[in-house]
Every structure is written in C-alpha cells, then in structure tokens.
Amino acid sequence: MGVKFKDIIEPEIINFKDLNGRIIAIDAANSLYQFLSSIRQADGTPLMDKNGNITSHLSGILYRTSNIVEKGIKPIYVFDGEPSEYKENTINERREIRQDAEKKWKEALKKGDEQTAMKFAKRSSRMSPYILESAKELLEIMGIPYVQSFGEGEAQASYMVLNGDAWAVASQDYDCLLFGAKKIIRNLTISGNLSDLEYLELDNVLNRLEITREQLVDIAIMVGTDFNPGIKGVGAKTGLKIVKNSSIEKYIKEKGITFDVNLEELKNIFLNPNINKNYNIKWKSVDKTKIVDFLCEKHDFSEERVLSAVKKMEKLNTTQKSLEDWFGK
DNA sequence: CGACGATA
DNA sequence: TATCGTCGG
C-alpha cells in the first residue's frame, strides 16, 4: 500500500521529454501488481494463454517497457527480496483481503454482476513465483536489466539513485522518500493525459516541509507503514506538526503510547536498509527470435503486436550509461 | 494497462 | 489528430 503522505506532498508535473536519456529504476513489484490488477477482461478474468497461465503482467511489461524505451528512457527493474519480519502483519492482512476478494469475485460471477466481479477480481491479484519468474524471463529476452534486492525493492532502487546508477525511482508509493531516493516519478505510464507524470525531489520535499529525512521517517511511523500500524488519529498533517513542535519520542511518552516493536529498529528499516551492492546493469538489444518464441509460441501473443513492440525496443541505447547520467545533474 | 480500429 | 470503445491472451 505505501505510506499515506498525500496530504503533505506537492508533486511537480513533468513530461516524458524531461526523462529523455534518463536511467529509471522501476519498482517491479509495484508495476506487476498494477498490471495484474488492471489488465483484465470485463468480468475480471486476467489475460491467460491456452494453458491457463496468467499473461496480464507479460502484456504490461512488454507494452509499457517498449513505450518508455521508445521515449528514450533506460529502465532497470528492481525486484523485492525477503520481506522484513516487521512486515508479517501486513502480509497476512493482505492475504486475507485477497482470499476474501476471490470468494466475492466468484459469487458476483455466478450472479452475472460484472462490475462487482471486476472490483473484487482486481483485489484478488496475487504475486506468485510463476509471475515473478516469467516477468524476469521476459525482461532478459527484452535486454532490460533487473536487480534482485535483498530486502525491499524500493530501498534498493533508492540506493541505486543515491549511488548514481539511476536518475530516479519510478513507483506509485511514497515509501522511496523514506528510503532516501533523491528523485521519484509516479504515473510512469503511457496512458493518462500524456503529461501527468508526477515528479518529486526528496530535498525539495524536505525543504518545503522544513524537516529532515529522519523526521519524515518519524511522520511515516506515526501515520503507519507496511512495517507498523501507526498511531490512531495521526495523519500526515498531524504527524508533521508533532515532529516540528515536539518529537515522536516525546509524543508517545506524553500520550502513554507504547509500540510493540523497538522504535529505533523501525526507523532503521528506512534509514539503514539491507542493500545489495553487488549488482551489474547492462542493456542489451532485444532478442527477436526468443521474444517471439516466448510470447507468441509459449503464451499465445499476437506476433504482429509483439513485433511492433520489438520495433520500439530497437531504439534502446545499449551503452552502459547515458551521457546525461555521466555528466548531468 | 495499452493496442488498435472506428469515428469525426 | 483527438477521443472513444473493445479487445488482448
């Protein structure tokens, strides 16, 4: 879900042109979830090949990636590793929501209520090992690099920006601000009004709010994150006031609030995440034979459509870093 | 979500 | 050229 910062964040609107030549670290889990939940038929059934394998995510990766490559962007997909033990409650909660949604989806299908069916089908989306493996296989064939995180993908992607290996992180969640991503892009999609990409710079966010990243993390912990439930009644605006006029420590002491986890450890999930520093990034040209075999032969995609996406992919500059990333700001 | 054809 | 509706797998 991600931390609820909407009330204190003022994103800039940018255009695809502003990303020309840029390396973007894409939160893979975030993208895959979007594809799985939204690429569906009217009754909520995902796209599938004739063997019943889900292909919605493959469709999403193929068409979105080829589009952004055509626009001069060099993508890197960053996959999640092992979740923190602090995330257990969130994971269990999500599983229950999914299972409940699946039940309601099937019930609505029996009644022939497509709208309700679709609503619950979207919520039933599940990230299986097959989804992850097939996504990585497609990226390899497309010549798009991906990085396997040790922990949170957003933490890894944020580090990659800090380290100069990517220009920005693309994710719908604001969590990468907590992980220290200097630049963040939301709505990196081709649909939408072509120019409603949201852009955030961490330093601008902190300057405007007149707080430090540590204080932003404190706000998140009070609002609630994937790793802790937060404090009831504290939203982003209240949290901001607390860190500016007082502190999270003083506030919980005054209110007699106790966390059932160690506060410093919770902060460290964001401030000192476990990072895989041994990654290498290389763009290759798309393998036309393999992509046709994988998508058309194995997964029943239309060859005509795949080839037109392949054509867009051929714009990819396969040098390791773009000029902008060597010399740019 | 994004491709593609229809429509104007 | 822009917007809409339906299909894709």
Automatic annotation (TrEMBL):
Keywords: DNA damage, DNA repair, DNA replication, Endonuclease, Exonuclease, Hydrolase, Magnesium, Metal-binding, Nuclease. Residues 140-211 form the XPG-I domain. Mg(2+) 1 binds at D27, D80, E152, E154. Transmembrane segments: none annotated. Residues 1-101 form the XPG N-terminal domain. Residues 1-98 are annotated as: N-domain. It comes from the Archaea. Binds 2 magnesium ions per subunit. They probably participate in the reaction catalyzed by the enzyme. May bind an additional third magnesium ion after substrate binding. InterPro entries: 5-3_exonuclease_C_sf (IPR036279), Flap_endonuc (IPR023426), Flap_endonuc_arc (IPR019973), HhH2 (IPR008918), PIN-like_dom_sf (IPR029060), XPG-I_dom (IPR006086), XPG/Rad2 (IPR006084), XPG_DNA_repair_N (IPR006085). Mg(2+) 2 binds at D173, D175, D226. Its EC number is 3.1.-.-. GO terms for molecular function: 5'-3' exonuclease activity; 5'-flap endonuclease activity; DNA binding; magnesium ion binding. Its cofactor is Mg(2+). It is an enzyme of class 3 (hydrolase). Structure-specific nuclease with 5'-flap endonuclease and 5'-3' exonuclease activities involved in DNA replication and repair. During DNA replication, cleaves the 5'-overhanging flap structure that is generated by displacement synthesis when DNA polymerase encounters the 5'-end of a downstream Okazaki fragment. Binds the unpaired 3'-DNA end and kinks the DNA to facilitate 5' cleavage specificity. Cleaves one nucleotide into the double-stranded DNA from the junction in flap DNA, leaving a nick for ligation. Also involved in the base excision repair (BER) pathway. Belongs to the XPG/RAD2 endonuclease family. FEN1 subfamily. Interacts with PCNA. PCNA stimulates the nuclease activity without altering cleavage specificity. PANTHER family: FLAP ENDONUCLEASE 1, FLAP ENDONUCLEASE FAMILY MEMBER. This is Flap endonuclease 1. It comes from Methanobrevibacter arboriphilus JCM 13429 = DSM 1125. The lineage of its organism: Archaea, Methanobacteriati, Methanobacteriota, Methanomada group, Methanobacteria.
